[in-house]
Amino acid sequence: QILYLKPPWTLASLLQCYKKHWVAVFGYVVPRSLLATVEYLYKHLLSAQTVDSSTAGVLLQESKKLLHAFSSRSDYNGVLPRAYAEVSKLHQTLTEDLSEDTMVLSENAVCEKMEAMTPNLQNCEEKKLHSSTHVAQENRHQEIWSVLEGVWNTINSYSVEIFQKLDPNTVTVTAKSSFEEAFLGLQKLIAAVNDILEGIRR
């Protein structure tokens, strides 16, 4: 009823609404610090300039952060998990491509430098081994991320089914108590997964 811009919304108008109503509305739903994320997305996604791959990676990461924050409120009829999965897929593809490019460039640079100086095959092999170890570590991080994401999506889908089948008119006092316990348990799980993800990022 009281809205800065009326629907239908474009991405630009949606982000503007976030900014305009952040203090009064959205800051009560998700952490207020995420306003910086909204402003970052607004600045780069609506710019006429193309972004480089590293900026694209940050944009996808920030988008995931915003979607994940709103997932603690609702799944929005299944739209949010699908959006999060698509953004995650894009981010993983970009990360893998960047890792491969970095590995190829670093290997070529090392080998060319070694050939220009005194040939030392052992040193070049050591550099390649270090590079492949780094890539393996990156893949491990992606694997951990995928497992956590799978856990979240599974629990989220079960929760949606349970909530949809619950009929408030027929729920007994005992069932209501169990429902509240389940809800609190999910909130604790979200916090725990957040902590794990922060640890992986560090």
Automatic annotation (TrEMBL):
The lineage of its organism: Eukaryota, Metazoa, Chordata, Craniata, Vertebrata. This is SWT1 protein. One of its GO terms (cellular component) is nucleus. Coiled coil: none annotated. It comes from Casuarius casuarius (Southern cassowary). InterPro entries: SWT1_Regulator. PANTHER family: TRANSCRIPTIONAL PROTEIN SWT1 (PTHR16161).
